[in-house]
């Protein structure tokens, strides 16, 4: 009887811990310094947008898809929700939030600080993602 109670309690604690960590991981916490960071690039410059599109095509499209719907050829291999860059939910994020997420990544989202080492280039990808809104 005593062993059954211990097993049940361990099960409850484990389930609670799993629920906490699972919900915590779902929310992407971006530090305030990045949320409030200003994009230093010209968002309207056609050359900048072309560079951003090229970088997006090379590094992001395979998972996020050509139109940013999260439907790229590698999307099915990922465990998490890739999001929809064209949706208002994504577009309401600050540029700094997008920059942070692409720079540091998490879970299935890789860190692009090494793949795209130039900060300005990552900002140009953010600018291009802004063009994917509906």
What's the CATH C level of the largest domain?
Answer: Mainly Alpha
Helix/strand/pairing category: mainly alpha
Gyration radius over CA: 19 Å
Which stretches are poorly predicted, pLDDT < 50 over at least 5 residues?
Answer: 15-25
Polypeptide structure, described:
It is a single chain. This protein has 134 residues and is mostly helical. The chain folds into two domains: 1-29; 31-130, Orthogonal Bundle (Cytochrome Bc1 Complex, Chain D, domain 2), CATH 1.10.760.10. 54% of the residues lie in helices and 0% in strands. The protein has seven helices and no strands. The radius of gyration is 19 Å and the shape is globular. The termini are far apart.
């Amino acid at each position: 009887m005593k062993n059954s109670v211990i097993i049940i309690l361990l099960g409850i604690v484990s389930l609670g811990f799993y629920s906490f960590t699972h919900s915590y991981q779902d929310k992407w916490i971006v530090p305030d310094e990045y949320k409030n960071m200003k994009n230093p690039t010209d968002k309207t410059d056609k050359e900048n947008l072309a560079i951003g599109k090229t970088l997006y095509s090379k590094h992001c499209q395979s998972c996020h898809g050509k139109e940013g719907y999260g439907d790229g050829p590698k999307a099915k291999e990922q465990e998490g929700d890739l999001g929809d860059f064209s949706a208002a939910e994504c577009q309401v994020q600050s540029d700094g939030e997008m920059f942070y997420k692409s720079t540091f990544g998490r879970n299935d989202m890789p860190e692009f600080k090494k793949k795209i080492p130039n900060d300005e280039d990552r900002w140009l990808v953010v600018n291009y993602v802004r063009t994917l809104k509906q």
